[in-house]
Design a protein that fits this description.
Layout lengths: L1 H30 L9 E6 L6 H16 L3 E6 L4 H10 L4 E5 H9 L8 E17 L14 E3 L6 H12 L9 E3 L6 H4 L6 E6 L4 H7 L4 E3 L4 H9 L8 E5 L5 H4 L4 E13 L4 H13 L1 H5 L10 H4 L9 H9 L3
Parallel strand pairs: 1-2, 1-3, 5-6, 5-7
Antiparallel strand pairs: 3-10, 4-7, 4-8, 4-10, 9-10
Helix pairs in contact: 2-10, 5-8, 10-13
Length: about 325
C-alpha cells in the first residue's frame, strides 16, 4: 500500500511540475512580444540639448532598452530640439525621437519632405513654457519684453517655435521689437542678467538646467496668461496643441515659494517612421511603458507616461508595431 501511495505521489509531483512549466511558458509568452528572441541591430535616437529633459530621458531609455534587447545598439544624437528632431526622423537621419506635437504638426502643415512617413509610438509627457527673468527684473508680462535682450532658443528648437508665436501674440515682432538671442537651456541660465534680460524654455518639469541654478541663483517666472494663450489659438494651425495650465508649486520650490505660475503646455510624442521594423517598434514601445517608474525616478515628468493615454499620438498615426503592443495589453 505504501508503494502505491509513493507512485501516486510521484505521479502528482510530475503532473504538478508539468503544469508549472506550462504556466511559466504562458507567462513568458505574455511578457515577451511575439514570444521570440529580442530584436538586435543599431538604431539612432535624436534627443535634445545636453542640459534638457530629452537628453536625460534618452540616456535612461537607452539603459532600459539594453536590458530588454541586449543585442540592440542605441546611438544617441544631441539636437537643438523638436524641430530638428522631426526633420531628422523624416529624412532618415534618425530612427526615433521625441518632439512636441506643435512642431510635428508644423512640419506636416508645411508639407516638408518625409512628413507623410512620420508615425507615432507613444504620447509621453507635457512640456511647460518657462519664461525666466532675474528676480529684480521689471518684466512682469510677455508684453514687457519689448526692447529687451531675450533668448528665444536655438534655431530649429521647439522653444524657438513657441517663443516666436508667443511674442507675436503679445504684439511683439521677434526680429525688430526685441534683441533676440539664440541661447538655450545650456547657456541661458548662466547668462541671465549678464547679456540677456529674459529667456524662454520649454521642457518637462523640473528641468535639471533650471533646477540646479534655482539652488544658488535668484530668478523668477513671468506668467503667461490664459488670454495670451487664447491669442495664440487665434493664429490657427499648430497652436491648437497649446493649452493653458500652471507650473505646479512643487516644480521649483525655492523659486516659487508655494505659488503656481500660469503658463501653457504642449504634449511630447515619441515618434518614428512608417518603414521602421514593426517587431522592433513593438518591443521598444513595451520597454517605454514598462520602464516608466524606473525612468521617472530620475526624470520626474516621465512618471506621467500612462498606458491609457500613450496611444493618443495626434497628429501622427500610430506605427504598426506600437499598435500591436497596445492591442496585446488591451483589457
Amino acid at each position: 500500500m505504501s508503494k502505491l501511495f509513493s507512485r501516486i505521489g510521484r505521479r502528482r509531483a510530475v503532473e504538478g511540475a508539468g503544469a508549472a512549466v506550462v504556466v511559466l511558458g504562458l507567462l513568458l509568452w505574455w511578457l515577451l512580444p511575439l514570444g521570440d528572441d529580442p530584436p538586435s541591430g543599431t538604431i539612432t535616437f535624436s534627443t535634445g540639448t545636453r542640459a534638457g529633459v530629452y537628453q536625460k530621458y534618452g540616456e535612461l531609455l537607452r539603459a532600459e532598452l539594453r536590458k530588454d534587447m541586449p543585442g540592440l545598439k542605441v546611438r544617441l544624437m544631441t539636437s537643438a530640439g523638436s524641430q530638428e528632431n522631426v526633420e531628422r526622423v523624416a529624412s532618415g537621419e534618425a530612427d526615433f525621437t521625441i518632439a512636441a506635437a506643435d512642431a510635428v504638426e508644423t512640419y506636416k502643415l508645411l508639407d516638408r519632405p518625409g512628413a507623410d512617413r512620420l508615425r507615432g509610438v507613444a504620447r509621453l509627457y507635457d512640456d511647460y513654457v518657462q519664461l525666466v527673468v532675474p528676480s529684480d527684473s521689471d518684466i512682469q508680462s510677455v508684453a514687457d519684453l519689448r526692447g529687451k535682450r531675450v533668448a528665444i532658443g536655438l534655431p530649429n528648437s521647439g522653444v524657438r517655435l513657441i517663443a516666436t508665436r508667443l511674442l507675436k501674440a503679445a504684439g511683439i515682432d521677434p526680429e525688430t521689437d526685441i534683441t533676440p538671442r539664440s541661447d538655450g537651456i545650456d547657456t541661458g541660465p548662466e547668462r541671465l542678467g549678464h547679456g540677456i534680460d529674459a529667456f524662454f524654455w520649454s521642457g518637462g518639469l523640473p528641468t535639471d538646467g533650471l533646477r540646479r541654478i534655482a539652488e544658488t541663483s535668484a530668478f523668477r517666472f513671468v506668467p503667461i496668461s490664459e488670454d495670451l494663450v487664447a491669442e495664440l489659438h487665434d493664429q490657427g494651425g499648430a497652436t491648437r496643441y497649446y493649452r493653458a495650465t500652471n507650473i505646479p508649486e512643487s516644480a521649483y520650490p525655492t523659486v516659487q515659494n508655494g505659488a503656481t505660475v500660469p503658463t501653457l503646455a504642449v504634449t511630447n510624442l515619441l515618434m518614428t517612421r512608417a518603414d521602421m521594423d514593426p517587431r522592433l517598434t513593438e518591443w521598444l514601445t513595451r520597454t517605454v511603458l514598462d520602464s516608466r517608474d524606473g525612468i521617472g525616478a530620475h526624470v520626474h515628468s516621465a512618471q506621467l507616461v500612462d498606458l491609457r493615454t500613450a496611444i493618443y499620438t495626434d497628429p501622427l498615426e500610430l506605427h504598426e508595431g506600437a499598435r500591436r503592443y497596445y492591442r496585446s495589453v488591451k483589457p
